[in-house]
Amino acid sequence: MKISEAAEACGLSSDTIRYYEKSGMLPEIRRGPDGHRDFSVRDVDWLTLLYWLRETGMPLRQMKRFTALAKSGGGTVAKRRAILLAHAGELQRRRALLDRCDEVLAVKIASYGATDGGGET
User: Fold this and answer.
1) In terms of residue numbers, what domain contains 65?
2) What is the CA radius of gyration of the chain?
3) Whole-structure pTM value
4) Are 64 and 54 in contact (CB under 8 A)?
């Protein structure tokens, strides 16, 4: 599939896909006889993973480390798993913080009742 189709399928922009490719974060993308990229389903699966890693706040530096390990082969599974586990832990920490923020806002919203709070904070 063309880059525009891959972009639509994975949620990334074509520019981001090109950036990830130039940064070495993608496997070798096959090129058609016309020289245009020809993305496979497997390529799109990888792009989708990168989309979600970035969407969940994984730093590009860490994403690059993860992809470099993936390119190194099966001997790096434990290291890749450790990266993902650490990221999952960070997501849990952030989720707990957001839950607390939600609780604080709910209390403040309730304190206003159905009418204007009269200019109070």
Assistant:
1) 3-112
2) 21
3) 0.82
4) no
